[in-house]
Design brief:
This protein has 155 residues and is mainly β. The strands form three sheets. A five-stranded antiparallel β-sheet has the order 1-2-5-9-8, with no helix packed on it. It has a four-stranded antiparallel β-sheet with strand order 7-6-10-11, with no helix packed on it. The longest helix has 18 residues. 16% of the residues are buried.
Length: 155
């Protein structure tokens, strides 16, 4: 026979108040990035910064294919369709003053299986950031507007 003792710590009101406060905090920031800007009804937010360490060794070749990438969510706040050709240019500057230009970018509709039309994902790939750098500032020109996302941590 298994005996259990359940003891109540606090009251249900205490639990409910703590739970509701936590839920409100989640609602306030849900779906929004700490690095987000809206210009001319186009909202761009940084989803993630990726550091991919990738070395290849093959029977007759080897190489370092390491890169850094920034993934951004692009949304038209008026729910109007976005073109996949609004990206104009970008570059990143680390906290040491080094400038990085993209080696690759791709803008694709979101979600890929049934696109909404007013949301895209912009993926920008850079050569590796300096190993001593701790943050990076992204300068992005998109649909004629200049977006600057400052001091994003990369380590």
């Amino acid at each position: 026979m298994l005996l259990c003792k359940i003891s109540l710590i606090g009251t249900t009101e205490d639990f409910s108040a703590a739970f509701n406060a936590q839920q409100q905090q989640l609602k306030d920031n849900y779906g929004h990035s700490d690095y987000e800007q809206t210009i001319n009804n186009i909202q761009i937010g940084v989803e993630k910064i990726t550091t991919e360490l990738y070395f290849i060794t093959y029977s007759w070749m080897s190489g370092n294919l390491t890169y850094n990438a920034i993934t951004l969510n692009v949304e038209n706040t008026d729910k109007k369709n976005l073109s996949l050709e609004n990206y104009e240019s970008s570059y990143a500057v680390d906290n040491l003053g080094n400038k990085y230009y993209p080696m690759y970018y791709n803008e694709s509709p979101y979600p890929p299986d049934q696109p909404l039309g007013y949301k895209n994902v912009l993926f920008i790939k850079f050569w590796p950031f300096d190993s001593k750098a701790s943050s990076v500032t992204l300068h992005l020109k998109y649909a004629g507007a200049d977006y600057v996302f400052s001091n994003m941590p990369i380590r």
